[in-house]
From TrEMBL:
InterPro entries: ARM-type_fold, CHCR, Clathrin_H-chain/VPS_repeat, Clathrin_H-chain_N, Clathrin_heavy_chain, TPR-like_helical_dom_sf
Gene3D superfamilies: Clathrin heavy-chain terminal domain, Tetratricopeptide repeat domain
GO molecular function: clathrin light chain binding; structural molecule activity
Protein name: Clathrin heavy chain linker core motif domain-containing protein
Pfam families, per the entry: Clathrin, Clathrin_H_link
SMART domains with a match to the protein in the record: CLH
CHCR repeats: 535-683, 686-828, 833-974, 987-1146
Membrane spanning residue stretches: none
This protein's GO CC annotations: clathrin coat of coated pit; clathrin coat of trans-Golgi network vesicle; clathrin complex
Biological processes per GO annotation: intracellular protein transport; receptor-mediated endocytosis
């Protein structure tokens, strides 16, 4: 043991280094809670980082560090918290209602918390709080201080340790062992205990044991070691050595243990007592190994020390951190000499591989051999520490032993024991291999090699090579014997592995020599070997030419080809000779198909093309020969022989490599040699390269050889895409000559390229029995009349019917027109029309027939259409023209028919009868107003025009007519005529007030006041339904004010239903100054019967105001006042007289008015007038 560090030396107060304040959960951290000058803090000593000290200003009752990471658990006033110091974050927190009496980390993720009544486990993962594991036993509930708590490695067993003071003053210990699976407890009397996991000899599975000190009153303490959690009937039984008495020192009779740790490295128990004594025990036997006092201060906390297999402990107050471990060099010798326990010393030496037991091992080995315990002796030698017995002498001793009948030879038993848990060394492997191979059991060696139980060497490989090359190769490879390993590769035929292995180990080989030998015995393997050598990643290991020479010396064309194909993949220029060689050996060596495949894949481009071309021609590979020839003579020679045998697709593509002139020359040569045989090829080539060679040249070529079928098939591949009219025409010609009339018809129908005149003339000249091609041409290009004439003159009437019925019914009018020109029978024409029916466009038909003055021809056809309910405008236009021409009740037709076009029939009627044109235009509902006005004006139909305008009530139309927009130079006469008819006829006839109103508005808008007066006089004064219309009377008077003031007074006197006051105000205005007229209006209004008195007074007042203010005639005013005798009138007259200095008259008027309102003005005036006051009195 030794002091690792001192906590006080690190600045930690001694009074803080005690149980409950200082914790040692592992050999990584020491954690101390201390208070210095009233400032609480937590001190963390990092034992893995040069004992670095970290102080955290945290106030906590206790703190424990996680065994492996910088996670700390803090406790203060019942609150438990866990923090991650590296992440600087709180992980969990929980408040307990019961006080915590002990806590510690039981593993890296769990904190155990012990309260007065129970034990809890609190995981740092998740959000859950502490979970109760078990309740404290009654024997541990009161008066006990909990000093430790342990959990087994599998988490299924818990050990709670407490101490208390007996009534005799002795400190007694009580432990509660709890089974998590069975949920039961067992109370043990003792001060300390722990769990350990050990490997028990003879068992494959480890044993989990409970080690504890048992101390009963009046009995010496004992060490108990027992396996827990294992069925007693399990194989191998339950591990439980005999309890051993603990050698407590006589000088410390009241001492007791406070800590126990299991050293996993040596399976040793470390127990430390209250008074500082250290005890070491062997877990396998329970025997005491050592006892010594290591400290005068109590060691209150301990933990395992992972690197040494020992323990660490901290002394109270002094702060020593002690490191306690096993001295492996002296342990065995100490047990043997000091404890005099040779059996235990031998057990420790063999189990732990410790020195110090050589003599004991020799003696025991000799004893076992002497007792004929071969198995025991073998096992002892196999497990001897540091292999002290694994010597050549030991092998010799086993080899010298006689065999026991029914058992393996002793030396085999020895090797068998060694192989159970060890790898044989070089000598052992060699000595084992010889007899095993002699017995023919090589499979055992192979098994041990796979399990890595034998040490491989050259000697072992030599022994095995005589019987098994493959196994010997494995040994040589492991033993790094390159030359012999390569020899094994060669013997196995694995030449491809030679290069990789030689490069891997840096071994140099004569590959050329090896290849020559291999080529004679195994050419295929030699070829693969040569590929490896030539394509080595680090650079070629053999010359390609020498490889070719080696194989060709043996006439191995196939292997040479395979090799060259591999090495020539790069297609490099400098390898042109080898490329040529590769093709040559196959063309001359009887494998032209191989050369053909190589050329097809276009793998090479640097060989002698001319030379290979000649060889291809000789070998019958004419396609390849053509691909290589550049001279036209060579090309023509091959073509003469093989053009018909070569792949057509190739041949067509090949011509793409020739020039225009060369292609044309070769094509002509092919036709010259055998036109029938080569025509198809020539056509395909011509079609594909027509643009490059020239269509005209190719057409000339076919025509030169008089090959209509060639020309037909050639142009047939172009016509659907060509935009050349000549191509289309030539194709039509060729198809006609070939009798391919369906094609002729198709092109004539679908093509948009050919010249229609040329094709039409050609077809007419050919006089085909089936004229459909001609029909399509004429139909598409509007040669209808020529087509009709051709068909009619050639008695092809059936095709005329087919044409108008199925091809182009819309062109029937042109056909009919032409037939009429040709004096065709009318019955045939009518039949045509009947067969076409509704599909025939009527407008065009009428135009065609009308132009030829044969319109009546259509009457039955048109009437038949109308009888079926036809409402087509053109049809009704046509029948209308016929009825008008025949004077067949045209007025009734024009007025009642709803389907004709007024514009069309209107124009048609203008020359025949303008009145009929008027009826047609009138039926247009305004769309033909301009024509209607034009016709009625031009033909003097003003009465109709006037009636139409009045009825139409269209101010815009009125404006155009009245302003003369339709009249031209005759505007004034037309306008006058129209107005006369409006005044004399249209308006007197109407009963519609809206029509009258609109007409008046129209005249007003046109600024025709005289005409308006004339119009209004006719309506208002000459007796009509609108004579008493107030608005019209108002309008008449106002219009007269503007245009003819002399008539105003007459209108006022003659009219009785106008707005008097309003009209009077207009009359007295500065614009007109018609004062007398205003006076008459007021007096006339005042005399109306039935009006209220106040309104009469108002009218009289306004009348007198006109006299005094506008006419300025006071005498008339006085006379008017006398006549009406109205006080309001007298008051107005009095004011006027007063202002006119007529004081006496004014006083008289005010007296009659009974109006004293102006008394001041009257007094003032009377004062200035002589005798004025007399009137006042």
């Amino acid at each position: 043991f030794a002091e690792a560090l001192n906590l006080q030396a690190l600045g930690i107060q001694g009074d803080a280094i005690k149980f409950g304040h200082c914790s040692l959960e592992s050999d990584k951290f020491i954690c101390v809670c201390e208070t210095v000058n009233g400032q609480a803090s937590v001190v963390i000593v990092d034992l893995q980082n040069n004992n670095a000290v970290t102080r955290k200003p945290i106030s906590a009752e206790a703190a424990i560090m996680n065994p492996v990471s910088k996670i700390i658990a803090l406790r203060a006033q019942g609150t438990l918290q866990i923090f991650n110091l590296e992440a600087r974050s709180k992980m969990k927190s929980h408040a307990l209602t019961d006080a915590v009496v002990f806590w510690r980390w039981v593993d890296t993720k769990t904190v155990a918390v012990v309260t007065a009544t129970a034990v809890f486990h609190w995981s740092i993962e998740g959000d859950s709080g502490p979970v109760k594991v078990f309740d404290r036993h009654a024997s541990l509930s009161t008066g006990n201080q909990i000093i430790n708590y342990k959990v087994s490695a599998d988490g299924k067993w818990c050990l709670l340790v407490g101490i208390s003071q007996h009534e005799t003053g002795v400190i007694v210990g009580t432990m509660q062992l709890y089974s998590v699976d069975r949920k039961v407890s067992q109370v043990l009397q003792g001060h300390t205990g722990t769990f350990a996991t050990i490997k028990v000899p003879g068992r494959a599975d480890p044993a989990q044991v409970l080690c504890f000190e048992e101390k009963k009153l009046d009995s010496p303490p004992k060490l108990f070691i027992m396996e827990v959690g294992r069925d007693k009937d399990a194989p191998g039984g339950v591990f439980r050595p005999q309890p051993q008495q603990i050698p407590m020192p006589n000088e410390a009779p009241n001492d007791f243990p406070v800590a126990m740790q299991a050293g996993t490295k040596h399976d040793v128990l470390f127990m430390i007592s209250k008074m500082g004594y250290l005890f070491l025990f062997d877990i396998h036997s329970g025997k005491a190994l050592y006892r010594a006092k290591i400290s005068n201060d109590p060691i209150f906390t301990t933990c395992q020390h992972s690197s040494t297999g020992g323990v660490m402990g901290v002394t109270a107050r002094s702060g020593q951190v002690l490191l306690i471990g096993v001295n492996e060099a002296n342990l065995v010798g100490y047990v043997s000499t000091q404890l005099r326990d040779n059996a235990l010393a031998l057990s420790l030496a063999t189990r732990l591989g410790l020195p110090g037991a050589d003599n004991l091992l020799e003696a025991e080995f000799a004893r076992l051999l002497a007792a004929n315990d071969v198995t025991g002796a073998a096992r002892l030698a196999a497990t001897s520490p540091q292999g002290v017995l694994r010597t050549p002498q030991t092998i010799q001793r086993f080899q010298a032993l006689p065999a026991i009948p029914g058992q393996p030879q002793p030396v085999f038993q020895y090797f068998s024991v060694l192989l159970e848990s060890n790898k044989l060394n070089q000598l052992e492997s060699l000595e084992l291999a010889r007899p095993v191979l002699q017995q023919g059991r090589g499979q055992l060696l192979e098994k041990w090699l796979k399990e890595d139980k034998l040490e491989c060497s050259e000697e072992l490989g030599d022994v095995i090579a005589a019987t098994d090359v493959s196994m010997a190769l494995s040994v040589y490879l492991r033993a790094n014997v390159p030359e012999k390993a390569i020899n094994c590769f060669i013997q196995r035929g694995e030449y491809d592995k030679v290069v990789a292995y030689a490069q891997k180990v840096g071994y140099h080989c004569d590959y050329s020599f090896m290849l020559q030998n291999l080529a004679r015995t195994n050419p295929q393997a030699a070829m693969e070997f040569a590929k490896k050598l030539a394509t080595n990643e680090g650079g070629a290991l053999i010359d390609n030419n020498s490889v070719v020479e080696t194989f060709m010396a043996l006439n191995r064309v196939q292997e040479t080809t395979a090799f060259l194909l591999e090495v020539l993949k790069g297609n490099r220029k400098e390898e042109g000779y080898l490329q040529t060689k590769l093709l040559e050996i196959n063309l001359l060596g009887g494998s032209p198909q191989v050369a053909d495949a190589i050329l097809q894949n276009e793998m090479f481009s640097h060989y002698d093309r001319a030379h290979i071309g000649r060889l291809c021609e000789q070998a019958g590979l004419f396609q390849r020969a053509l691909e290589h020839y550049t001279e036209l003579a060579d090309v023509k020679r091959v073509m003469q022989v093989a053009a018909h045998t070569l792949n057509p697709e190739f041949m067509v593509n090949y011509f793409g490599t020739l020039s225009r002139e060369a292609s044309l020359e070769v094509l002509k040569d092919l036709l010259t040699r055998n036109l029938r045989q080569n025509l198809n090829l020539v056509v395909q080539v011509s079609a594909k390269y027509a643009e490059q060679i020239g269509v005209d040249l190719l057409v000339q070529m076919f025509e030169q050889f008089k090959s209509s079928d060639g020309l037909y098939f050639f142009l047939g591949q172009l016509v659907n895409f060509s935009q050349d009219p000549d191509v289309h025409f030539k194709y039509i010609e060729a198809a006609t000559q070939m009798g391919q009339f369906k094609e002729v018809e198709r092109v004539c129908r679908d093509s948009t390229v050919y010249d229609p005149n040329t094709v039409k003339k050609f077809l007419m000249d050919k006089k085909l029995a089936d004229p459909r091609p001609l029909i399509h041409v004429c139909d598409r290009h509007d040669f209808i009349e020529e087509m009709t004439g051709y068909l009619y003159s050639n008695s092809l009437l059936k095709y005329i019917e087919v044409y108008v019925q199925k091809v182009s019914p819309q062109k029937t009018p042109q056909v009919v027109g032409k037939l009429l020109d040709l004096d065709c029978n009318e019955d045939f024409v009518r039949g045509l029309l009947h067969s076409v029916g509704l599909a025939c466009p009527v407008d065009d038909l009428v135009e065609q027939v009308e132009r030829r003055n044969r319109l009546r021809l259509l009457q039955p056809w048109l009437e038949a259409r109308i009888a079926t309910g036809n409402t087509e405008t053109a049809t009704h236009n046509a029948i209308g023209k016929i009825y008008i021409t025949l004077n067949k009740d045209p007025q009734q037709f024009l007025e009642n028919n709803q389907f004709y076009s007024p514009a069309v029939l209107g124009r048609f009627c203008e020359k025949l009868d303008p009145s009929l044109a008027f009826l047609a235009y009138k039926r247009a509902n305004g769309e033909c107003d301009e024509d209607l006005i034009r016709v009625t004006s031009a033909n003097g139909l003003f009465k109709d025009q006037a009636r139409y305008l009045v009825e139409k009530q269209d101010l815009e139309l009125w404006a155009k007519v009245l302003m003369g927009e339709f009249a031209g130079e005759e505007e004034s006469s037309h306008q006058r005529s129209l107005i006369d008819q409006v005044v004399q006829t249209a308006l007197p006839e109407t009963k519609n007030p809206d029509e009258v109103s609109t007409t008046v508005k129209a005249f007003m808008a046109a600024d025709l006041p005289q005409e308006l007066i004339e119009l209004l006089e006719r309506i208002v004064l000459q007796g009509s339904d609108f004579s008493n219309n107030k608005n019209l009377q108002n309008l008449l008077i106002l219009t007269a004010m503007k245009a003819d003031k002399d008539r105003v007074m007459d209108y006022i006197n003659r009219l009785d239903n106008f707005d008097g006051p309003e009209i009077a105000l207009v009359a007295v205005s500065d614009q007109y100054e018609l004062h007398e007229e205003a006076f008459v209006i007021y007096t006339k209004c005042a005399k109306k019967s039935g009006i209220p008195a106040e309104e009469v007074t108002s009218m009289n007042v306004m009348a007198v105001e006109v006299l005094v203010e506008h006419i300025s005639d006071l005498s008339r005013a006085k006379e008017f006042a006398d006549r009406v005798n109205d006080v309001a009138v007298w008051s107005k007259v009095g004011v006027a007289q007063l202002e006119g200095d007529m004081v006496h008259e004014a006083i008289a008027s005010f007296i009659k008015a009974d109006d004293p309102s102006r008394y001041k003005d009257v007094i003032s005036a009377a004062r200035q007038e002589q005798g004025g006051f007399e009137d006042l009195v």
